[in-house]
Structure formats: structure tokens, C-alpha cells
Specification:
Pnp Oxidase, Chain A; about 25% helix
Length: about 140
């Protein structure tokens, strides 16, 4: 896969696991990404979650997307965005967030962009081959 194909794969898959690290303890959780393009991968969380606090202390992350026996792992740095228009766009397209915004306002929503991305693709066919790293 080239960089464009990887970003298309990410946009079609949406759900992934993301890993953070707090000290020497890794933490993973499932998330839904919002979109991916050459500028990065957008995702959101609540500023009240431990996940948010972990990202503030150490923004290095790895995302793992899996579909149709293809695994794409992407490493990068999660950057907190201050973009009200983007928050409104996300809430407009994700109805499950609307009741939370009505109750707590937009401040509860934290939007991140994973930048400086490098990807590696795994399939059963390439299982025993050395990993190839692709700058996105």
C-alpha cells in the first residue's frame, strides 16, 4: 500500500485501537476516528477522561486499524486542536455527541490530530517479511 491507499483504508475502517503510554505502562482502547488525510488523523475524546490526561503527558501514539485480514499500524504525535468549527462539524455528524454538548457545552470535547505519521501494513502474505515503514 502507498500513502494514499493507507489513508483511504483508514477512512473506510474508522474504528481502531489506539495505544498511549503512561510511564512504562501501555494503555490501549478502541476509538472512532473522524477523518484521515495528508495532514493527519482526527479523533476526539472528553477532556475529563484519563485518555485525555495521558495524551497531555505523552502525545506519542500508535493506532491499529484491522479489516479484511489487513492490519495498518500508524505511529505519530497527537496534537490538541483548538478549532470550534471542527468541533461543531464533528458534533453535527455524530448525533451521539449532541446530548453531551447540550448538557456540558463544547468544552467537554477535545479534538486531536495525529501528525508526523509513519505507517506499516501487515497481511498474511507479508507476515514473515521485514516491516516496511511508509511516511504519511
Amino acid at each position: 500500500m502507498n500513502a494514499t491507499e493507507i489513508l483511504d483504508f483508514v477512512n473506510q475502517t474508522v474504528s481502531c485501537n489506539i495505544a498511549t503510554c503512561e510511564g512504562t505502562q501501555p494503555h490501549t482502547r478502541g476509538i472512532m476516528t473522524y477523518r484521515a488525510d495528508k495532514d493527519g488523523i482526527i479523533f476526539h475524546t472528553s477532556a475529563k477522561k484519563e485518555f485525555f490526561k495521558q495524551l497531555q503527558k505523552n502525545p506519542s501514539v500508535e493506532l491499529c486499524f484491522l479489516r479484511d485480514n489487513i492490519q495498518v499500524r500508524i505511529t505519530g504525535t497527537a496534537k490538541l486542536l483548538d478549532d470550534q468549527k471542527l468541533k461543531e462539524e464533528i458534533v453535527g455528524k455524530r448525533a451521539f455527541l449532541q446530548p453531551m454538548v447540550e448538557k456540558m457545552g463544547y468544552d467537554f470535547l477535545s479534538v486531536f490530530r495525529v501528525e508526523n505519521m509513519t505507517a506499516t501494513v501487515w497481511t498474511m502474505t507479508t507476515n514473515l517479511q521485514p516491516a516496511e515503514f511508509i511516511k504519511l
